[in-house]
Amino acid sequence: MKSFKQHLAEHSHSTFKRQWMDQDTMPSSAHAMEALNSLVGQLAEHEYLNPQIGIEVLESQLGKLGYHFEVPTLDGGDGQYSLPLTYGAGTFEADRSENPYGEFKEGDGISDHIQGGVSLVIDVMRSG
To answer: Is 104 left (phi over 0), alpha (psi -120 to 50) or beta?
Structure first.
């Protein structure tokens, strides 16, 4: 018969292990995409009966690193969702290239460092 300690040790593999430092996850870091792919890959290994829960867990884990995305409302069927990421609150600056008084320009906080920005593509499929 197993002890309670052995039972916990056997089923404790679902915790997320941090493999990087905070500065490695900033968009300006050379390892930013590797850190993001590692986190998303770790979450994708789990099965979720309710896909909305999986997306909310992903949003929570990415939020701890400073990345955000708009959570889609799932209509219950299959589908593919493309969700652009933002870092922090994004960027807000005055662009004086065309107008000397400046035009306001908003960004996602990522496109300045990673060409084209970053988007998550989520496929929702029914099982069974």
So the answer is: beta
Q: Domain range for residue 55?
A: 21-124
- The token pair at 58 is 């992903």
Residue 119, pLDDT > 60, answer: yes
CA distances 83 to 17, 41, 47, 72, 120, Å, are: 25, 16, 20, 8, 5
- Per-residue pLDDT of 71-102, as tens digits, reads 888 877 788 888 888 887 666 777 777 777 76
**For the CA atoms of the chain, what is the radius of gyration?**
19
Q: Is residue 12 part of a domain?
A: no
